[in-house]
Amino acid sequence: MAHTILVPHDGSMDAQQALEYAIETFPESRLVLFYAIDPFQVTPHEEKQLPPLSDDWLEDQREIAEEIMGEAIDKVSEAAEDATLEIETTVGSPAESIVATAEDLGVDQIVIGSRGRGAVAKAWMGSTAELVVKRASVPVTVVR
Fold first, then answer.
1. Which runs of E-coded beta strand occur in 13-132?
2. Which H helix or E strand runs over 19?
3. CB burial class (10 A; 0-12, 13-18, 19+) of residue 6?
4. What is this structure's pTM?
5. How is residue 9 annotated by DSSP?
6. Could you give the count of Cα atoms lying within 13 Å of 124 in the half-sphere of its Cβ?
7. What pLDDT does residue 61 have?
8. SS3 call for 140
9. What are the contacts of 53-62 at 24+ separation with CB within 8 A?
10. pLDDT (tens digit, 9 = 90+) per residue, 86-103?
């Protein structure tokens, strides 16, 4: 029986490692790559200072998400030949969006990197991963 695995991905090395782990561990599963556009996070590499949630800002964020997902898929496309790879993008708090999407899609497990690209990271596990572990109703594997 094929399982559905949600893999949050923000472009960080830990997220990439989580994706690689998911592909190796669940080679014939439906893998859902997930990206949350966080309206509360200011990204320092943005050239324009657009107001959060404006149409232009949201379009820029969707382009960033598409680029990150494309790079992730390119890096693992050969290893994922038996897996079904899908992409989900939403706007909202990453932790809350991950948990809500897991429930909405009826996933069997979440595989998440221990730390993302956030400016402030906890010693061994980032705040998003920690909140997902606490709130998810399905098993969560944290990859370091």
1. 30-37, 84-91, 109-113
2. helix 13-25
3. buried
4. 0.86
5. -
6. 1
7. 92
8. strand
9. 53/91, 58/91, 61/37, 61/91, 62/37, 62/89
10. 999 999 999 999 999 999
Residue ranges covered by each domain of the chain: 4-143
Amino acid at site 108:
D
The residue among 12, 13, 28, 34 whose CA lies nearest residue 111 is: 34
State how far the alpha carbon of 57 is from the alpha carbons of 24, 37, 51, 140, in Å: 36, 10, 7, 32
**DSSP SS3 for 102:** helix
Architecture in CATH for domain 4-143 = 3-Layer(aba) Sandwich (3.40)
| pLDDT tens-place string over residues 40-78 | 775 555 555 556 678 888 899 999 999 999 998 887 777
Chain segment 9-33, per-residue pLDDT in tens: 999 999 999 999 999 999 889 999 9
* Cα atoms in the 13 Å half-sphere on the side-chain side of 86: 13
User: CA torsion angle for 114, 116, 119, 125 (degrees, to 10)?
Assistant: -10
- Token output for 143: 């990859």
Q: Is the dihedral of CA 98, 102, 105, 107 positive or negative?
A: positive
